[in-house]
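pinging the channel bc i need a second pair of eyes. not urgent but kinda urgent?? the chain im working w is below, pasted from the shared doc
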Amino acid sequence: MERATDIATAALQRAVEASERRLVEGNKDWPDGAVVMTARGDTVQIWPMGRVAYLPVTPQLPELPVAPFAAGEAIEFRQRDLNRAAAFYRDLASLNRPDVRAGALLRLARCLRGAGRQADALLVYARLLNEDGWAFEGMPVSLVARQARCSLMDALNQADDLRREAAALVSDLQRGRWPLTRAAAQLCAQDAARWGVAFLPGQSERELLADGLRSLWQKLSQPGSAASGRESIAVGREETVVALWNRSGDRVSALVATSQFVSAQWLGAIDPVLQEQRVKLKLHSGSKGLPPGAVRRADEIGLPWTLVVAGSDPEMERGQYRLRRQFLVSGFLILAVLIVIASYLIFRATSREFAAARLQSDFVAAVSHEFRTPLTSLRQFTDMLREHKNLSDERRDICYEAQARSTARLTRLVESLLDFGRMEGGARIYHFEPVDCSELVRRIVEEFRNEAQSSGFQFVLAAPDSAEIDADGEALGRALWNLLDNAVKYSGDSREINVEVGRAGLDVTIAVRDRGLGIPAHEQALIFRKFQRGDEAMRLGIKGTGIGLAMVDHIMKAHHGRVEVRSEPGRGSTFTLALPVRR
């Protein structure tokens, strides 16, 4: 068996080496299930382009110019004369400059839409469908035009025309007409589905190859990456692709192939050898959970997989079956014991899952509520500005101020959620530098005081002239902001918040104290867990997402510091951040 395994392994190595030679020779004609990538610097080319759903890195198309349209946009937006603006853009569209013509047509269609001339706008967008060499705000002009036509047809309830246009969009996406990133390709696919045309659901082969190329590109872009290699890359939950690459100077050539290609081209090539040796060969991406047989590990044979070779003789298989049956019988009693233990563990795990599901449900509801308040404010003031065009400058300034506050609140909420996700995933990067802790606290308290001025709170700050620490100023500021936000929420009838910067041994401390509801002792160890909120806060309906203190805990651990809480129900709470003094 060992000799047969060595023969099968050598045959597979030769099949893979033959593909590597074709790759180095620059061959671009590959069977289904494989794509070739060549790269120089940030310039990447893919063959065949239609086999991937998106590119690992997209070329930058030249942006349409802006200057030629300044006068027209002044007529369109300042004077609000859509007909004159449309005439201006129509004149520019007749010029013999492709970039100016494309920009003029986009703006002409916009004016026509604004004037209610949707059918004319559709015709103008149709003239842009072949403008592939330009970008408008980062997106190919022809793609912008195609999506705009779909949106217009959807708004006009032109169902048949919409399906044809969406089908054309999907066709262009599937043949790789536009160099798109993964996010852009997925958004286009979602739009097409919304317009009634299904687009490659699930982890299709095009997505597998695109994901494999992206993972390989990220690996090759790292300093010190190997000049050549063979690797199995996990994409999706259970899928893998194989990558071969070779670097020559500043040029990289790579082949990414799915299991379909591996089975047809490499395993198919060595099938006569396997039949002659009367063995079966299986490929495994990892080295755990391998079936019985002779094993050749990936790092030993220089292939992307671990090989397991077993006999194909029926008598041999029956002998192995009898051996497995003996093991099965001998382990039955052990299994019975394990079932009892597993049942208990499953019960505990299920209970925890239910608790986690409840916490996540509460979190979603809380976040939805947090979003609803500023969105409602934005909508109200936007409607006011839209419906009352003769508002005085003072009233308009009030509306703009309210919109700015709501926008800032939404921005902070979104950034907090994204930042928390990065912290949970271990992807948050901290930039440490010398920071004057006192100055940072003064700035954050002043910003928060301006934010909360309408609620009547007083913030009493005590801070020394200077307290040097090594910190990520943005992250530490967010931690302090979260503590101030909690202090305001849970102050009850009290309207005074104390903030104090001090020293405790080798630590600089930042203490935030309120005189509000307080926290029971049994909850103080739980409030730093994600989605966890106190019973009293839930009973009183106090708003919150349940991640603020969890973020504070993450940030302090990243700073080699800690967060502490002292609290008594009805007497308020003091949260203290302790950070090492800069040495």
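so The chain has a mean pLDDT of 84. and The first strand starts at residue 34 and ends at 40. — does that match what u expected or am i reading it wrong
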